[in-house]
Here is the input.
Amino acid sequence: MKMKINSKQKKLIMIFLIILFFILSISNFYNIYQQLKNFSGKKIIKKTKTERTQEAKTKEEKEVKKIYKKTQKLRGYKNNNFKNTIEKQAQKYPHTFFLESPIVEKKIYLTFDDGPEKIYTKQILDILKRENIKASFFVIGENINYYPETVKRIIEEGHTIGHHSYDHINFQNYKPEYVFETQIKRTNQILKEKFNIETNLLRPPYGVITNQQIEFFKKLGYKIINWSIDTIDWNLKLDKNNIINRIKDQKHEGAIILMHSGGGNRKNTVESLSEIISILKKENYQFSTIDDFNKF
Ligand SMILES: [Zn+2]
Here is the structure.
């Protein structure tokens, strides 16, 4: 059977072919132009230093965006509203929920989540000792049982311990009473038994906590300490320079810096720490610990 093409269809096919031809020639010309440019000018072959830095920065920014999207999911937020939520919470509960120090002082708070663990927590402690500064460790109750010696060191060397739950659940999926019983009270019992200490300082996993839970913890005298600078040190797609740059760009008086001493490979954290400390020391920051927040 023969297919009949009427003149209208012929016209359409012609138009389609012409458009296709144009697209192909434009992309071809562009390729030739690029090659010529590569060949003749040094601009593309030898990128200037600033161009390369800009490129690295853009790559970094893209990666950071991806990471934020991912963590957003972990936190259980559908839209990009985690930041809004915590900012509102800090405003609503000024004496209970903190993103930074409420007073202007040349102080800065290094904080480490997810420890203790086998390798990195000790390396971080070694650096802090060498630098003669104090920091804060938000520990996971379950891990205290595995690495009590490391927790002992944290306490003996003058750092501050805070809660980071018993087994890293997302608080917002549970009732306040349940969170308190299974995550906080339980961890306090372990701390009391093993080291004769207890703490009212708390950083919820992922930084996520509901208003109802804040109010519950407020009544019990707890302080919830989130952060103002996220180093994203846990992400190994980024290197130690990314952590250092984030500190350089974002450092401010009263900042709470989020880092990790456990929960995975923390070599970037360890490798960047000395330099971060030296940058902040040069600017005369005083390294303080989170028990300061009990005064506010
Ligand atoms: Zn955590």
Notes: The beta strands are 97-98, 107-115, 136-139, 160-163, 201-202, 223-225, 229-230, 255-260, 286-287. The pocket of zinc ion is lined by residues 113-114, 164, 168, 205 (CB under 6 Å).
